[in-house]
Specification:
heterodimer, A: 288 residues, mainly alpha, two-stranded antiparallel sheet, 10 helices, 2 strands, 5% strand, B: 567 residues, alpha/beta, Rossmann fold, six-stranded mixed β-sheet, 21% strand, globular, Energy-coupling factor transporter transmembrane protein EcfT (chain A), membrane (chain A), ECF_transporter_component (chain A), cell membrane (chain A)
Chain lengths: 288, 567
């Protein structure tokens, strides 16, 4: 701190982007995974538009083959974006997609109302035979692959996009800074609440609140926790408004951003392509 | 540069009773460094809020008179406009975070983005102000996961990045240990050198006074004293409202005993210079080396079974940080002060005493019970623990309900609860606030409510984490008296404190922790007689002790003791 008084500082060679992107996170599955793939470098808005279009297309396509192809293609694309990204997406796919696939195939394969053609028939004790129908299985796969497209597209966009970059990109496209702020603050809100809840619980136990005695006192303890948590949040909200105001948050006029979020020719091309593809599918399904 | 003018300013908050400040009529020269001190609720924060326009633009109330910052009338300019000229650091640094940043650099850059500066300039100014407050290494950390002291510096960097001409700092060191506080005051004094106008509210005059051009003392919303610090400190009766620095008290005493001196030495070196010619040779007349100086209540600690026993206790947090490594000690009664720098393991240590933390290795026993065998709620009958931040501990809408919460949980019968609640409220001088909402009280009084709510549990062991932080002189004295009374009843009182002056006055035993280990453990004279070891954990002995050491005297603990060596 001895050089504390030497203000201003000369030119800096700090790579802010790398710094922010590689900062430690909370390791949740839905959190940003740093990387430098094409997917990472795309403009966040492009990723949102493209994944939105792909999801709509998947839901418009009539048979499961289309969504299947999209699922495979998307997964390959996401997997090339780095091990961290692949792990996040893969984990969610297995954890959610697995049970989903099983239940869809069972329920629809056996009980889909339009079931006619028997695909397999299994000999089962007690109830004699169990028949899986082609129509039901196809319907199950259609639903399943639509949902996997949804999962991969959204998750792929989320884990390859730093939230700060997303807000900058949105503001550059005309979204108000208040909405962008609410988005960022919401992301930070839950860990903040957890920390505070822990402190309050500690203080209450230290003053004799028994949280592990029986159900009634446990319920009571949660009620007792909510009050200070809410009061604290309200007070924080009030002072936060002042904190924001004092940093020119409500100031009118041009804003700039700490990060430069590129919007390249490739981005524009992808957004056009996604839009055109969506229109083409809509026309095909509704008009032809 | 910017000149600040108050013309007959009076303000009352719509929600509050009466006027917060009245008849403020003064000018603050551009480029001056002004300190503000005075009792809690004297209007110091309101004074600060008037400069960046939070009053009247953000808070509701009636403003009479006018405040001008440079050529701008605060009444006419918006907070955003004033922010380019006036930067204010809030009392609680957590309140100043935007809550929308994933890293410290985003936090610091937030205001600059709103000003619409070029990217390169944003980066340069953000990094520059982080460097200025000495926290460049925190640049990629998450602002929500910093310690109080770190947040305070991030908040300061965020304010400096906006490049205001005027800096207003409301208790900028409330979350810092003394070395951290000194570092902040040095940065701020450096800002003055660069032409900033600086206004600082603080109770820590020992560290602040040497830097000041001018000191204002506020009482009941008015400016009671205004002048150079030396003048203010020599005003008769000032001791009742202001915690006058030890070095000044020594200078005054020197004059009282009949020596001609320059007046009020603001720094330790100045006090030493004034004393040096009058100090007798240590061997002369005091061959015993000061060991038998009759003074502080040392040796009061009783023998007998320890109430609290630590055996080889280590604690490793999730993530591998070892906060305690092999601590063994017993505590029976009396006042035990824990000292040590931020992060030394003091809070981790006391959280083991009521089972909130369990040892990773070793055993903690409280009144013979192993803490791992009992629930926290059961241990609460034995150990009452009050935390540093009162806002995590207050959850009722009146002070009385708050204080009654502990006794109710412990199922005291009506009569006993009434009695302990009453006594706790009286002890902490909260009688006139008993029906008020704790959140309507100022931070120092809220802290006293948190202490009262622990005292009401009438436990044999009481633990207080930084009870004197942010308290004014009367508040600190009140807490000291309360602790003395508890000790007189035979209780064990463990106090975490950065205030070595407080430890000097009240401790029977001082334990210095550093890096999770016990560095020193003994009576205050033994511990404060070891400045080299204390330095390992960034603790300085009390000012009077330091002055004694500098003059080659044995360890003295009070001005009376020091003056036994003065001719």
């Amino acid at each position: 701190m001895s050089d504390g008084a030497t203000a201003g500082a000369g030119t800096t060679d700090v790579d802010v982007e790398a710094l922010i992107e590689n900062a430690d996170g909370t390791d949740s599955l839905f959190e940003y995974r740093p990387g430098s793939s094409v997917l990472h470098r795309l403009n966040p808005v492009t990723k949102l538009v493209a994944s939105g279009a792909l999801i709509l297309i998947a839901f418009l396509l009539p048979t499961f083959w289309g969504p299947l192809a999209l699922t495979v293609g998307l997964f390959v694309l996401v997997a090339t974006a780095g091990a961290g990204v692949a792990r996040s997406v893969g984990t969610v796919l297995v954890a959610v997609g697995g049970p989903l696939a099983l239940s869809l195939v069972l329920v629809q394969g056996l009980f889909y109302p339009q079931n006619e053609t028997v695909l397999v028939s299994l000999a089962v004790p007690v109830i004699d035979r169990l028949a899986f129908y082609e129509e039901g299985i196809e319907f199950a796969l259609l639903i399943l692959f639509r949902l996997t497209v949804l999962m991969i597209a959204l998750l792929g966009a989320i884990v390859t996009t730093h939230p700060k970059k997303l807000t900058v990109a949105l503001m550059e496209k005309g979204v108000s800074n208040k909405i962008a702020y609410v988005f960022m603050a919401a992301l930070q809100f839950i860990p903040q609440m957890q920390t505070r809840a822990k402190s309050i619980l500690d203080a209450q136990q230290a003053r004799g609140l028994d949280t592990s005695a029986n159900l009634t006192s446990r319920v009571k303890s949660y009620v007792a926790l909510m009050a200070p948590l809410l009061i604290g949040t309200l007070i924080a909200t009030e002072t936060r408004a002042l904190a924001l105001e004092s940093r020119g948050f409500t100031r009118k006029g041009e804003r700039t951003y700490l990060l430069d979020v590129a919007d390249t020719g490739l981005d524009r091309a992808i957004r056009w392509l996604a839009g055109l593809a969506l229109i083409a599918v809509i026309v095909w399904r509704l008009v032809l | 540069m910017t000149h600040i003018t108050f013309e007959d300013v009076t303000w009352g908050y719509r929600t509050g009773e009466g006027r917060a400040v009245s008849n403020l009529d003064l000018e603050i020269e551009s480029g001056s460094f002004v300190g503000i001190t005075g009792p809690s609720d004297a209007g110091k924060s309101t004074f600060c809020r008037l400069i960046p326009g939070y009053v009247p633009h953000y808070f509701d109330g009636e403003l009479e008179g006018s405040v001008r910052v440079g050529d701008r009338a605060v009444r006419e300019a918006s907070i955003g406009e004033l922010a380019e000229r006036v930067g204010m650091l809030f009392e609680n640094p957590f309140d100043q975070l935007t809550g929308a940043s994933t890293t410290v650099i985003e936090e610091v850059a937030f205001g600059l983005e709103n000003l619409g500066l070029a990217r390169e300039e944003i980066v340069e100014r953000s990094v520059g102000s982080l460097r200025q407050v000495g926290i460049e290494e925190l640049i990629d950390r998450n602002p929500q996961r910093l310690s109080g002291g770190q947040s305070q510096r991030v908040a300061l960097a965020s304010v400096l990045a906006m490049a205001p001409d005027v800096l207003v700092l409301d208790e900028p060191t409330s979350q810092l240990d003394p070395h951290g506080a000194e570092a902040v005051f040095e940065i701020v004094a450096g800002m003055k050198e660069q032409g900033y106008t600086v206004i600082v509210v603080s109770q820590r005059l020992d560290r602040l006074a040497p830097h000041l051009d001018r000191l204002l003392v506020m009482e009941d919303g008015e400016i009671a004293h205004d002048g150079a610090p030396e003048e203010v400190f020599t005003t008769p009766g000032i001791d009742a409202v202001v915690d006058v620095p030890q070095s000044v008290r020594i200078g005054r005493r020197l004059r009282e005993v009949g020596h001609e001196t320059d007046g009020a030495p603001l720094t330790v070196p100045a006090a030493i210079e004034e004393l040096r010619p009058h100090v007798s040779d240590t061997s002369a007349g005091r061959a015993d080396g000061g060991v038998t100086v009759p003074s502080s209540p040392e040796g009061r600690e009783a023998d007998g079974d320890p109430r609290v026993a630590f055996e080889e206790v280590a604690h490793v947090y999730e993530g591998g940080v070892e906060a305690l490594s092999g601590v063994s000690l017993d505590m029976a009664s009396g006042c035990v002060c824990l000292v040590g720098q931020n992060g030394a393991g003091k809070t981790t240590f006391v959280k083991h005493m009521n089972g909130l933390l369990e040892p990773s290795r070793g055993v903690v026993r409280v009144d013979g019970i192993e803490t791992t065998d009992a629930r926290v709620a059961q241990l609460a009958r034995h150990v009452g623990l009050s935390f540093q931040n009162p806002d995590d501990q207050l959850f009722h809408d009146s002070v009385e309900a708050e204080v009654r919460y502990g006794p109710k949980n412990l199922k005291f019968d009506e009569e006993r609860a009434d009695e302990t609640v009453e006594r706790a409220i009286e002890r902490l001088d909260l009688t006139d606030a008993r029906d008020r909402n704790p959140y309507d009280l100022g931070m120092p009084r809220r802290k006293r409510v948190a202490v009262a709510s622990v005292l009401a549990m009438d436990t044999e062991t009481v633990v207080l984490d930084e009870p004197t932080g942010g308290q004014d002189a009367p508040g600190t004295a009140l807490l000291g008296d309360a602790i003395e009374e508890l000790v007189a009843e035979g209780k064990l009182v463990v106090v975490i404190t950065h205030d070595v002056g407080f430890a000097r006055r009240h401790a029977d035993r001082v334990i210095a922790l550093g890096q999770g280990e016990v560095l020193l453990d003994g009576n205050p004279r033994e511990v404060f007689g070891n400045p080299e070891t204390l330095a390992e954990t960034d603790v300085d002995p009390p000012v009077v002790t330091r002055i004694g050491h500098e003059l080659g005297l044995p360890t003295v603990l009070s001005i009376d003791e020091l003056f036994e060596y003065v001719e």
